[in-house]
Predict the structure.
Amino acid sequence: MEVHHHPEVEKKGFKEYLLEGLMIFLAVFMGFIAENIREHIADRNRETEYMESLVKDLKLDTAVLGRSAYLKEQRVLAIDSILTYFSGNMSAKRIPVSMFRQMRRAQWDMFFIHHSGTIDQLKNSGGLRLIRKKQIIDSIEMYYQQVQRSESRNSAYFDNQQASYAISEKLWDAADNIKTLRDYYLAQKPYPNTGFTTINTAYLNEYLNNLVRVRVISGSDRKTFTIDLKNAASRLIRLIQKEYKLE
């Protein structure tokens, strides 16, 4: 009977096992390092992309705030003209059309609604953790705290706006308003700079008292919130551009 002999397997020494183990460990470790490097690069790219997007939002904010500040200034100037006129004409029953135009202009300006796309994404996705620079984080938080304070005024500002409209509707004579609507607005003709329009003097005192309040609120809002917020947005833009070397 034929007997098959199994070839002898050379036994590995301790050093060989140690070397194999070390090679496996190094391979896993290097893979771990490579993955961390990839994640680090990806995070840094995402961080830069977020900052580029945030700068775009901030630039849109500054444009809106600049426009808002201008419109508030024009409203304040119109109010000043009205108060100056009526300080010497409290008994006037008919006023120049030019003054009527100023009264129309004194009714409105512009609310600031900030561009929140990037900051909302940063907060909702946990992207704020990607921002390494504490100065950037602190500056972003300070800016958006100012934004929140500004927006908290919008409701009260809107209510005051509606009150101004209501008082003005009592003051202006309906017959003249209808004629203006028919002869100029619907006819698409430019509104004249000459002539007179009738007012209901019984409501003039209430109107002017409200206008004084609007003057204070609009002037304060322009300086304390609109211009200051625009300056804060501009500073944040410059800081981000400097720290991330953005154009």
About this structure: The longest helix spans residues 14-87. The longest strand covers residues 94-96. The radius of gyration is 34 Å.
